[in-house]
Specification:
single chain; mainly alpha; Fic-like fold
Length: 202
């Protein structure tokens, strides 16, 4: 890869092998890469939001979605992470944890364990915490969360009315809220997503 990646605070750096898996070799700047990746993500979102989804809560769908969002940019798109990162569970635990998450959400929906928006916020946090893929986990997890909300008849989150990719005060609040949720304090995340008042849980 001829581009030296630039990462926003809280982003997951690629290791050298992952960085060499860039597909479009004609790109020469981070800005060009960002734009290429952005277009790929838009195509993935269009695929996700306009097709009928079979078994949304499954590792197979998640891998397919990530592949659609990043498959024209990275050769590892849709493949579960095999390397340790500065965030995320151990690689050998990824498939197990995703299976547990999908099962837990199915039970929560059945028993109405949480208000729907809070359930989606907790789902989002756990998916980011697992960090299934080498990169793009935040963007992927936000799309998955919006798909889940739509699937249960709720409106997608506004996500601070920004893309949360570039460094900004809004992104900083989002990252801090996720880190607080790591310690089981969900209030900041629920407030960021605009669903604290609807929640009855701490």
């Amino acid at each position: 890869m001829g581009i030296t990646p630039v990462y926003a605070p809280g982003a997951t750096p690629l290791d050298p092998d992952e960085a060499r898996a860039l597909i479009p070799q004609h790109l020469s700047t981070q800005e060009q890469l960002n734009e290429w990746e952005h277009q790929n993500i838009l195509e993935g979102q269009e695929w996700a939001f306009t097709r009928r989804k079979k078994k949304l809560l499954s590792i197979e769908f998640m891998q397919a979605l990530h592949r659609r969002m990043f498959g024209k940019t990275w050769r590892w798109a849709g493949s579960l992470r095999s390397t340790e990162k500065n965030i995320g569970v151990a690689p050998e635990q990824i498939a197990i944890r995703i299976g547990e998450l999908c099962n837990d959400v199915a039970v929560q929906l059945k028993h109405k364990s949480y208000p729907l928006q809070e359930m989606a916020a907790r789902f989002h946090h756990r998916l980011v915490y697992i960090h299934p893929f080498p990169n793009g986990n935040g963007r992927f997890a936000r799309v998955m969360t919006d798909l889940l909300l739509l699937d249960v008849g709720e409106r997608p989150f506004a996500w601070g009315d920004t893309d949360l990719v570039a460094a900004s005060e809004v992104r900083d609040r989002y990252i801090r809220a996720l880190r607080a949720a790591d310690a089981r304090d969900y209030r900041s995340l629920l407030e960021f997503l605009g669903c604290w008042r609807a929640s009855i849980h701490g």
